[in-house]
TrEMBL record:
Domain Rhodanese: 24-112
Organism: Sagittula stellata (strain ATCC 700073 / DSM 11524 / E-37)
Keywords: Transferase
Entries under SUPFAM superfamilies matching the protein: Rhodanese/Cell cycle control phosphatase
Official protein name in the record: Rhodanese-related sulfurtransferase
UniProt xrefs under InterPro entries: Rhodanese-like_dom (IPR001763), Rhodanese-like_dom_sf (IPR036873)
Amino acid sequence: MKTETTDGATFETWTPDEVETAMKNGEIVLIDVRTPQEYMFEHIEGALLMPMAFFRADALPGQSEKRIVFHCGSGVRSEKVSRAAIATGVKTIAHMEGGFGAWKQAKKAYTGTDMGSGAPKSVPAG
């Protein structure tokens, strides 16, 4: 994990491996900031959706029990949302480096779409 201090806040960049481990351990809330269409096509199981276009830092849950980690398709939008949260006074925030693309490249499990039926389908790790 990379950490930087900016405006008195801690901004962390997590790897897909770190996110997967923290999710399995129940330590984080993963928030997907992609569009609803992107999320419906494929997403990380258990990730919540808060599209960047509708992002409101004041609607974020507290982080007393679980940390918040944002992700998007490539890491660009999640970094922007993280920095926007810091600008509103959030003291610690994180995003996943490389986004969903890095997650898939690391061969992590996710929920995709069966192109024949349009139904959700589990894509196993590996």
